[in-house]
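Technical appendix A lists one of the benchmark inputs used to test multi-chain prediction within the project. The record comprises two sequence entries:
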Amino acid sequence: MKQFDVLIIGAGVVGNAIAREISKKNTVTVGVLEKEPDTAFGISGRNSGVLHAGFNNKPGSFMAKLCVQGSEGFEKEAAELKLPFKKTGKLITAGFEEDLARLQKLKEQGEANGVKELRIIGREELETLAGYDAGFGALWSGMTGIFDPFQYTIALAEAAAEQGTEYLFGRQVVEIAPKGKSQAAPSNAAGSGSFLVTAENHSTGEREQYRTEILINSAGLFADEICRMVGINDYKIHPCRGEYHILEKRQPWLLELPIYPIPNEKDGGLGVHLTPAIHGNILIGPSAEYLTAEQEREEYSTTRDVMVRLNEEGVALFPELNIGDCIHSFSGIRPKLASEAEGGYADFVIEESKRVPGFIQLVGIESPGMTASIPIARMVAQMTEEIRVRNKSCEAQWQGSESKSAQTGLLQAVSGEPGDEKMLCRCEGITERAVLEAYDRILYIGAIPTVKGLKNRTRVTMGNCQGSFCTINIIEVLEKKRNVDPLALLWNGFGSLMFEGRVKE
Amino acid sequence: MRIKKNVVVIGGGPAGMAAVISLKERGIEDIILLEKENRLGGVLSQCIHDGFGLIYYRKNYSGPEYSALYEQKIAEKEIPYLTEATVLSVRSLDAEAYRSLDAESYRSLVTVQTAEGTLEYEANAVIAATGCRERGRGLAGIPGTRPAGIYTAGTAQALINLQNFMPGRKALIVGSGDIGLIMARRITLEGGQVLCVVEKEDIPGGLKRNIIQCLEDFAIPLYTNTIVSNVYGKERVSGADISQIDAEGNVVAGSTRFYACDTLILSVGLIPEEDMVEDRHRGVFLCGNSLYVHDLVDDVTLEGEMVAGQVETFLMKLAAGQAPDETRFAYPGIETMRKKRAQLVKRKKDMARKKAETGAKTITCIMCPNSCEITYDLEGGMCGKGPEYVKNEILNPKRTLTSSVKVTGGAIPLVSVKTTNGIPKEKLMDAMKLIAELGATAPVVPGQILCKDFMEEGTDLVATKAVKRYSLDNTSEIE
């Protein structure tokens, strides 16, 4: 049985940031369990890719505090992670004259949160900044920026892995038992909770067990279910789906910065907005629809009604928008702690459970969770340290029986074989070498190779052809240069086989 | 590395091959053909079905055979070409002149990515014969989940015909473009089930002859004014809803039906792909599908040859110190082609109306893309082949069968094949069973008989493509 000092559930952006933060101390063994084949497969890879400034959040909340911290420190972190980041600024536009007062309130809220570079601008300046007559006025936020959410989440995982974090992909947690204590009567406050975690391995179909001193619940959409496994029934996640359209890069006009309408206070999201992606595409979205109780948590479908509505709202924001240029539609899901009836707003829960010591719970980490991910990680690392100090004084601490992961070296560069510079994806300008390197990087963090994983790392299949040319090239190069069996290659999740056998056996 | 060339032709498909051969024939030297794949032929290599060259050559070639005509000429005329060479951009060499609009700017800088790195060509003229790409799911606006099992028709065609992968066993075809129709037949012949073809317009997109020989022959239903309104399945496609739409594009209430399937094949249109051409200065010429999408390769060939003529004039004027023609893009055949297409659509509609009005029974001749309606009295038809076809169609309908045979020891896993004559329509599936049991050993040459007296005496199954042998260490191709 594998033993860890700290075991994290969920390899999303927050789980990865926590793993990176804690594994900076090389005396701590850190593991991450993730049910999907790879990192950034859930909500971390399904959002606008915007670094928020923090004016949308209630003063005094975790959301406000951690978002502002994340926003201020991001440029430095991005440089360290070699992550392209563009501080574009952002406009929140007033579509009607009466919205101007709300803009002022938003600015004041932001200033109460400590957000810098906020300014109310008039119609003319708005037109200059937006490039078109976008409304009666706007709130200008200079701290806002854009980045690639896949790259960010993956870079955090790679940094964590490099520091010795052991990633265990395809492991879905099914049961958690505090060791040596009956589940019915959780430990008293002074005890050192040590957990026995049972996970189903989706690759082998077998159950595996892990032991850990500290367990961190960073399970995103499923955080409430993980809580229930340790006997905490306080939370219920209300999944709220947001659909997006992606427009092709070549447009007759240039969108340089995100443009949001002033938030509708009722729907619990930020409203359908236009965001330039860091790679040059334009996103329209997201919508906000609460999933029903009958729907699956991860119902990432797009729907005909919303797709039509996004087009309409996109055009309302920017009349010259050519909705015929939509090359892809997708959705993300916000793990909300408050239901639609409750107004959709609740602060992040980030704490060590009082009833289950050693169990750190992160529940309701929705927007601005990505911006706040590193400050959240620092907070959690601090809690972890305190628990370890406390536990040491209580009982002799066990030592991890297995030596620290051997993956301490740098990422192995793909050897420069002649022929690797061949262009594999013309739309996005990606060479065979880049795809092979991405493949190796997937293996490096212990993830299971999928086309989606290659896409998230390189942008292959994300261009105008949407994979109609390059899918074939990907298969060919993996088969030829990495001995991958295409019949076993996954498209995205487990079971997503791409082919139904050979044409001619 | 920067190399000077007289003319650079981008794209080794039918348009580019026709253009470069025509340039050579016109005595234009110092030319090069660039192709991004590891072989010439473009999309023709995967189009193993027949019907190519019916107009231009009055012969019925398969895609690989049609391609071979041009590959051979390129070899004979020793025209230099580079494979695995992807053009990243075409810009004006005199960028300043181009942008200022005061001075003339003719010459181009072509940046190319090869397996070994980047190189540049300085060219007096560039022909971009870069083809087109398929419209995908996003552009078609298909809602639902995003599981494995959704392919564009061209991708499915390459998977099945070049790579030996079966994309699925139970498919629904979205869109009635020609490739979609061809793939409906191809999947059916290879043992898959095609539930139906849905088309959102009120008339099918593909040629009439393909509706007949790809759908009607196999009793595959085609639903017009119909869309896919939802896709189901988490890992792999598990099904789709199809719904009728009214004239405004709204779903007709109560018309939605669920189909269980494992694959969606999208044939929802093609888009000219010329976005590597960044500067639109004189000296850059377009032809083939990079200009507009053609129904027939014959027209593409013709345009390739015509654009070579335009380049010849352009170069002569340059050499004589005269200003070249104003056209910054050559649209050699576009007007003719547009008219032709409009006529074809009009004829289709006229015939359908006439048929409905008079109630006259006709049979559509599928010998060529004209798709003439021939009456039972053997009247009608433009080329004279119609009556013979109709006689056969009534007495003993036959079809040329195209498929593939597995190759051992080859550089590619499959060789495309065809029957030398038509075989009885009702025996097509039996013939496929026989083909499944056949095998070939590399090298295979085009025309090589893989099964003599296949199905009936005097009709053979022959290879339509060359397959080279792979050496034992599996690293290099040998002849």
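Chain A is about 30% helix and 20% strand. Confidence is low (pLDDT under 50) at residues 181-191, 395-410 of chain A. Comparable benchmark entries are summarised in Table A2.
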